[in-house]
Amino acid sequence: MRNVSQRTAVITLVVVIVAGIASVAWAAWSVTGNAKATATAASVTALQATATPQSSLYPGAKAAILVSVTNPNEFAIEVQSFTSGAAVQVDAKHLADGCTASSVVVLDKSALKLRVDGGDTEPFTVPDAVMMIDQAPQACQGASFVITLALAGVSLPD
Hints:
The chain is rod-shaped, with a radius of gyration of 37 Å. 19% of the residues lie in helices and 33% in strands. The protein has 2 helices and 9 strands. The N and C termini lie far apart (80 Å).
């Protein structure tokens, strides 16, 4: 058998120690793992709106309406259009006298850019939004009309 010199033994020992330290360092920096995260999307709540004509209607006349939009959501929205959401209703007395709901029409509006921040209420005036038809009967004089609007829009980024 061969005698190992003291110098060779020290070099071998140093190499083993350095290799051991290097493998520990590699193990300390080479860590992997997995994690799961859960995010919950906000629920969307319908907008609330009221509309008030800004002038009286008569045959052939158009009127602006003041639309007040409440956004109960946590995020801002942009109202982009509105249409008639349901049939126009006439008060009972004038309806019985011969005024028809078709005497008033909602003029659909698009290309609106009406911003309402989350939790806020914003009023907007929309010109020429409703009109009484030219052939509206005399029975419509003094009538009250209930007009339902359907708003359409999109959420906005913060």
